[in-house]
Design brief:
Elements: H1 2-8, E1 9-13, E2 18-21, E3 30-33, H2 34-53, H3 69-86, E4 90-97, E5 100-111, E6 116-117, E7 124-127, H4 130-143, H5 153-156, H6 174-178, E8 193-194, H7 203-206, H8 214-226, H9 230-239, E9 248-249, E10 262-264, E11 267-269, E12 273-274, E13 282-284, H10 286-293
Antiparallel strand pairs: 1-2, 2-3, 4-5, 5-6, 7-13, 8-12, 9-13, 10-11
Helix pairs in contact: 4-8, 4-9
Amino acid sequence: LVAFILVSVMRVECAKCSVSVLGDFHGRYIRMPLAKISLFALFLFFFLLLTACSTAPKKPLHIEPGDYSHVIEYAKWLIKKEIRKRDLVGLSIAIVDDQELVWSSGFGFASVEDGIKATGDTLYRAGSLSKLLTATAIMRLHEEGRLDIDNSVQTYIPSLKLRSRFTDDNPFTLRQVLSHHSGLPSEYLKGMWSDNAIDFRDLPALIGGYSNLGVSLLGITIENTSDSRYEDYIDEIIFDPLEMESSYIGKSVVPSVLMSEGYRKGKRAAIVDLSLYPAGGLVSSVNDLSQFLKM
């Protein structure tokens, strides 16, 4: 683009302080004062730059199996576009094909204030991806015969008491909780996000007719049937064997140089504790999560 601009601006005629610009103007010269041609060249440069940036990479006519070069090129273009459009601070991405980590990268910043850029190893609070881990743990216990997903949740949490408006209401099962068909309310809102969040293990004593989160009840079920703390069991069957060395799940975020800061509308925001962490307390990186995808 710079070369195009420089080549296009030619034949400076100092005596008349004008410049002739060569271009596709039906073979004619356009004469402008020198100051105007500078502005014209600057405008043309940025116009072409923006046009080039807004155009998606052209898809090749033929792509060989296993060739992800165009996918990666397109992903880079799309991510940069979305970061500008949505004013995002940063993100990380990984592409996995079966047992191969094809590509991972970071865009933007993990910490704007400290000038730390996002990478494939940047840690994020991964939110509802935590449900995959909890469901995996439940199914492992089911395969081992230590629980049956068609039994009621109360089978494994005897202290759980729920009031129902229906006289013929049947106890909901683990399978129904796993598939979000238990009829339980969305979440227990009181103290869910807080500097002093309650622990999900206290739910059976606190649940009312209008508040609960089924996946956290699965977390209690895992503890009651595995004879391990929920976090320890996730370490044992997922993080340790898959060598997800930077990942953990819990109520609080552990300080780390790899941990991304939290931002809301471009401004730094505090990362508070989460009480229902079997449903949302996972902290991981895209490189670690790639190991889970290859499981």
